[in-house]
């Protein structure tokens, strides 16, 4: 497979200037002017599009970022947005406006969430975001619930072409952001254990727990690895696989399949990159070629050290064609089509009208 998307953590560390890009003063000035324009027009943050958030020179940087996300490493970060200058709603307008120059925002939940706030939602998060009950009576949190807790997140992808994060606050301890090339993991598996890599080209059943309304009892089949038109794409979250295994109708995983997923995780740890997302960092990842994860964290509200990020899901106009198996989650699979996200109950749409 190879290519620019097959990077290692050492590769990213050796060329941070190639993907961690400081915002220029000119770009910050453009952002302030675009915010003022949106406010003058009376655009609420969720109504903002590229026309309501006009950018010039920085728009060219974003176009280059979109190209790098699809045809390069699949990772881009802009650093130094002065988040302390803005109110919460202004930050939402800025991030939503910038992201709208990259792609089309899609819904992140069945309740119409377009800009998620990633923070600890407390001990009852499972009841809000989805959970099952383990055999010992403890709660098995959905992937969605784990995101909104302080516990670590394992390697996974989201249900969209590109995921964007804006860091607003940092935890007192922990919470490191982790990323790894899914292509590099794939290539390492082919080299070390081709028998296990082959298993991940076949369907594995996952639960819809925490996604669609009443999805805890439903599963869907999808391979972890696919290649379409010579281009790689992966979709993976072990939590959804484990949740699926609790349901009687789900085909049970073999020991070899579990071994393949164990190797995937260990290769992610070996080949990945870890960093702290600092306030003002805007990071975008191509979910088809990059896995992401997170360390556990501890907040200290008394000192204001609270981990808080805004998250956006984007359907990209320059996206690759996906394998037909992806239709079970993404709807459309054609290159450049509006796809991904969570289709809304009753309407079936996955994105707001533009």
Structure, explained:
With 354 residues, the chain is α+β, with helices and mostly antiparallel strands. The chain has one domain: Clavaminate synthase-like (Double-stranded beta-helix), CATH 3.60.130.10. It has 11 helices and 19 strands. Strands 1, 2, 3, 4, 8, 16 and 19 form a 7-stranded mixed sheet that branches. It has a 4-stranded antiparallel sheet with strand order 7-17-10-15. A hairpin with a 5-residue loop joins strand 5 and strand 6. The mean pLDDT is 92.
Q: Compute the separation of the termini in Å.
A: 37 Å
Give the full name of the CATH homologous superfamily. Answer: Clavaminate synthase-like
Oligomer state of the chains in this structure: single chain
Q: Please tell me the total number of domains.
A: 1
What are the low-pLDDT stretches, counting only 5+ consecutive residues below 50? none
Question: How is the secondary structure organized here?
Answer:
Elements (H helix, E strand, L loop, with lengths): L8 H6 L5 E3 L2 H17 L15 H15 L3 E5 L8 H13 L3 E2 L10 E3 L6 H5 L1 E3 L5 E3 L1 H5 L5 E4 L5 E8 L3 E2 L2 E5 H11 L1 H6 L4 E4 L11 E4 L2 E4 L2 E4 L3 H7 L10 H17 L1 E3 L6 E5 L3 E5 L2 E2 L9 E8 L11 H4 L24
Parallel strand pairs: 1-2
Antiparallel strand pairs: 2-16, 3-19, 4-19, 5-6, 7-17, 8-16, 8-19, 9-18, 10-15, 10-17, 11-12, 13-14
Helix pairs in contact: 2-4, 7-10
